[in-house]
Design brief:
By secondary structure, this protein is mostly beta strands. The protein contains one helix and 24 strands. The strands form six sheets. Strands 1-21-20-19-18 form a five-stranded antiparallel sheet, covered by helices on one side. A hairpin with a 4-residue loop joins strand 10 and strand 11. The longest helix is centred in the last third of the chain and has 8 residues. The protein is globular, with a radius of gyration of 18 Å. It starts with a strand and ends with a strand.
Length: 301
């Protein structure tokens, strides 16, 4: 399957009918370029998600990598499903785990920590049952605080990121939105207040399946697995890995701007996304069927 990208009317629209395997027309090569106009002066940031600038295979203990955060030009911080441990990864000719930082004691064989983000010298890790681990001085002498939220197992919290516009965190739910009378297919992103250390009761934005399907021209399943805010455009990027593998782009005000179908051969289970301050995109994927987990770098052009 080749990547397919679908945009709203005010973005570049490139869609080929040859993607339908039931037609006899010869297949055309899909355009894998993603062009984004900023809200800060009309600059363009273009990513070719079919052609990563770099790829790093990860060691076996990161086979189930579930999140990543930008540290500096040579390092990412990663987390994986099995253990409550932060992994400081140096990205050079190969990916090297420089440091492992445990932050929680557990007897569970699979702890289900799902994502990580960094604000100054503090890391925040999200547990799938809604708990947030605040890890001060994570890279030196970690001090850990567990923060309980009103979200739980049924919500399946899989994404967390820093939002520089709000100066707070965003937390995405893979399953139930927690909103009464909303459909099961509706998912929510909540705002976590860094000062009060609590989730705001009303969701920051809702993700409606009908909007995703309307833009795609067919029924599509969307289950948020990671979230990140673009440092230049303030657009919100949300990965989905269950069902349809795609990347959705929303304006910061919550308007769906684009969906981008991902190639499962390149990204078999994408569960982590982050940006460098200058807009370099990093997507991590779990390993599948004997292939190692990996981190991909996508440069803007």
């Amino acid at each position: 399957m080749k990547p397919r990208f679908i945009y709203s009317a005010f973005l570049l629209l490139i869609l080929t009918s040859s993607c339908n395997s039931n037609t006899s027309a010869p297949e055309k090569k899909a355009d894998t370029t993603v062009q984004v106009a900023t809200e800060k002066g009309g600059e363009n940031y273009t990513y070719d998600l079919g052609k990563p600038a770099k790829k790093w295979n990860l060691p076996g203990d990161l086979m189930e990598i579930s999140g990543n955060a930008w540290v500096d030009k040579n390092h990412l911080l990663a987390i994986e499903d099995l253990r409550p441990v932060l992994y400081l990864i140096r990205l050079d000719d190969s990916a090297v785990v420089e440091k492992k930082i445990p932050f929680h004691q557990t007897s569970k064989e699979k702890f289900d920590v799902e994502d990580v983000t960094i604000v100054d010298h503090t890391a925040y890790a999200i547990y799938s049952h809604g708990k947030i681990f605040k890890i001060d001085n994570w890279d030196d002498k970690p001090a850990v605080k567990e923060i309980t939220t009103f979200l739980g197992k049924e919500n399946n919290t899989e994404g967390i990121c820093y939002d520089p516009v709000l100066n707070n965190l965003l937390v995405s739910c893979k399953n139930k939105s927690g909103i009464e009378d909303e459909k099961k297919s509706t998912h929510a992103i909540y705002e976590f207040d860094l000062k009060s250390e609590a989730l705001k009761e009303a969701p920051f934005m809702l993700i409606h399946k009908k909007d995703i399907s309307k833009m795609g021209g067919e029924k599509l399943e969307f289950y948020p697995s990671a979230v990140a805010v673009h440092p230049k455009t303030n657009d919100i990027y949300i990965l989905s890995t269950k069902g349809s593998k795609m990347l959705a782009e929303y304006s910061h005000s919550g308007v769906l701007k684009a969906i981008q179908m991902l190639d499962p051969n390149l990204l078999p289970q994408p569960e982590g996304i982050c940006f460098s301050p200058d807009g370099v995109m990093y997507i991590s994927t779990e390993g599948k069927h004997g292939t190692p987990a990996a981190i991909y770098q996508f440069n803007s052009k």
